[in-house]
Write a structure and sequence with these properties.
Distance between the termini of chain B: 78 Å
Order of helices and strands of chain A: HHHHH
Number of domains of chain B: 1
CATH architecture of chain B: 3-Layer(aba) Sandwich
CATH topology of chain B: Rossmann fold
Number of helices of chain A: 5
Helix content of chain B: 40-55%
Structural class of chain B: alpha/beta
Largest interface: A-B, 37 and 33 residues
Oligomer: heterodimer
Mean pLDDT of chain B: 92
Largest sheet of chain A: none
Radius of gyration of chain B: 22 Å
Number of domains of chain A: 2
Low-confidence stretches of chain B: none
Largest sheet of chain B: 8 strands, mixed
Low-confidence stretches of chain A: none
Chain lengths: 189, 353
């Protein structure tokens, strides 16, 4: 386990080295032979390889958080069930008893799980899980952007720029309208 | 060999549940086809996705000062009119109030950059302008519920000259004092990464937060109760309406969500009078109008400790804090709210309108 970062770095460097080498070695012949959408094939492949290589490390980290997440849920379930079992022996086996058992089961499970969800360890692990999920999503976005670019379609970043521009324009219009409203009010006075 | 004894009634209950499960599709409506809201309104003003609803009066004379409801940014406003017998808006109309409500709408990716400034100084202020012009008044009363209570509080601080009365119903004010599981997640949440990667806060994540609130009561017992009561038409109707409302959760604009998590839950700026909106500092000391703070003791979404500090932070001398023995939704959509919360609110507001 101690060698894990070293091995990851080794594979990462090997993948990057060969994708770079292949890109460089093939750049001249491919430039001559490729036209149209294939023109950027090798550089696109390089970008995609880089993203996927980085994603590997994040998948491992994501899995660690995910395992811990399910472990926390399973441990809490098991503790709650033990508590229910210890109390259920005192509950009679009739209709009222069934209702009482249901109530005890729900109360104990609710308390145990609320305790878990209220804890710092849950919040930290859960947010770590979400964070890694978002990092993976970011990689997937980057890969998709490469494909969109090769198909001559706007990328996520380009669309975001348009949204931001529209937002800025709306704010400028809003300020102009506000100034107009103020001067109209002053005129009325 | 031991003999297993089963109570005949228990077996009967299981058989009944099985029968109810099988017959449910014939007895209940398809949840998504259930109609919510019966009180009539006109859409009097629209801006982007936001709509201002004006409810049709139910009395011949109305109280002069109009009342604007600022609904929460989570879920839709329908809970205020979920059922005629539990309708918050219908009750207020019957008390003679001239009633408006802001429906924030369903934000899309283009709304990612909308924040407190756009919601408060833009949408809400434009709604207040519209109402003042229509009613020929300078000030109106504002009621804010849940996160809508926070927006109403921020608005009242920045524009106190436009607010005659403020009613804060379960507002999110002091994030550090909130003891709910939502705040526990919010405190460690990397909101920058979410907004920068996804844009708006997706509804799926909001569902997750709801589902961990009371997972067994809400996720197991509630549905068993539904199937056990499948022959009770009133119960089934009310259940499906609430379920449909819970299911209609819109995304939250990314920037607003970022400011929300950082400003309220992580840095707790609002209660410290350090929150800045549109370049202006939000000070709760600016709240000098009559204020009614409504808090539900059993609120597991916004804990009472999170809402109550508003009462003590304002400069108003005409203020009241009421604690009700109910929950977050029970405070606004229940027979309890009809019998207790709304008559008290109506009385308080009439005396000041």
């Amino acid at each position: 386990m101690e060698n894990e970062p070293g091995i990851t770095d080794y594979y990462k460097k090997t993948a990057m080295f060969w994708s770079d080498m292949i890109a460089m070695m093939s750049s001249k012949p491919t430039t001559l032979s490729s036209v149209g959408p294939l023109r950027t094939l090798s550089s696109n492949l390089k970008k995609i390889t880089a993203e996927l290589t980085e994603a590997n490390k994040e998948i491992v980290e994501f899995n660690n958080f995910l395992i811990e997440y399910y472990k926390q849920l399973a441990d809490t379930w098991s503790n709650a069930q033990k508590e229910v079992t210890s109390k259920s022996t005192k509950i009679p086996q009739n209709e009222e008893g069934t209702e009482a058992y249901k109530r005890v089961w729900i109360d104990i499970f609710e308390n145990n799980f609320t305790g878990l969800f209220d804890s710092k360890k849950f919040s930290e692990n859960y947010n770590g899980l979400i964070s890694k999920e978002l990092e993976l999503l970011k990689r997937w976005n980057a890969v998709t952007d490469v494909m969109l670019k090769s198909a001559n379609l706007p990328t996520k970043q380009e669309i975001e720029e348009i949204y931001e521009e529209i937002h800025a324009l709306k704010n400028r219009i809003f300020k102009l309208e506000l100034d107009k409203k103020k001067s109209e009010k002053n005129d009325r006075k | 060999m031991t003999e297993n004894k089963f109570d005949a009634k228990i077996i009967g209950e299981f058989l009944n549940l099985g029968r109810n499960l099988a017959e449910a599709p014939m007895k209940a409506s398809v949840p998504h086809e259930v109609k919510i809201g019966s009180t009539q309104f006109d859409i009097v003003y629209k801006e982007d996705k936001m709509r201002l609803l004006h409810f049709k009066p139910l009395t011949s004379k109305q109280i002069k000062t109009p009342l604007l409801i600022s609904y929460a940014i989570v879920n839709r406003y329908h809970i205020f009119d979920i059922d005629p017998k539990k309708s918050w808006v219908k009750n207020l109309l019957e008390q003679g109030f001239d009633l408006y409500l802001i429906d924030w709408g369903t934000p899309t990716k283009i709304d990612k950059f909308l924040g407190f400034n756009e919601y408060v100084n833009g949408y809400m202020d434009n709604c207040v302008d519209y109402i003042c012009d229509e009613s020929d008044v300078d000030k109106i009363s504002i009621q804010g519920y849940c996160t809508g209570g926070t927006l109403a509080t921020v608005y009242s601080s920045l524009h106190p000259e436009r607010v005659k009365n403020l009613i804060a119903t379960a507002p999110v004010i002091d994030g550090w004092k909130d003891t709910t599981v939502v705040s526990n997640i919010a405190k460690f949440f990397d909101v920058d990464k979410l907004v920068d990667t996804v844009g708006n806060m997706p509804p799926e994540f909001i569902y997750y937060c709801f589902s961990i609130l009371k997972p067994f009561e809400q996720g197991v017992e509630k549905y068993l109760k539904f199937f056990n009561n499948i022959d009770n038409e009133k119960f089934v109707d009310s259940f499906l309406k609430i379920e449909k409302w819970l299911d209609e959760t819109p995304p939250i604009p990314g920037e607003l969500f970022r400011q929300w998590i950082k400003g309220i839950y992580q840095d707790n700026l609002l209660i410290k009078n350090k929150m800045s909106v549109g370049g202006r500092l939000v000070s709760l000391e600016n709240l000098n109008m009559p204020i009614f703070t409504q808090v539900a003791v059993g609120d597991h979404l916004v804990s009472p400790e999170c809402s109550m500090p508003l009462h003590y932070a304002v400069s108003s001398t005409d203020k009241i804090l009421k604690l009700y023995p109910t929950g977050h939704v029970g405070m606004i959509a229940s027979s309890f709210s009809q019998k207790t919360v709304l008559p008290e609110l109506g009385q308080w507001l009439k005396e000041r309108s």
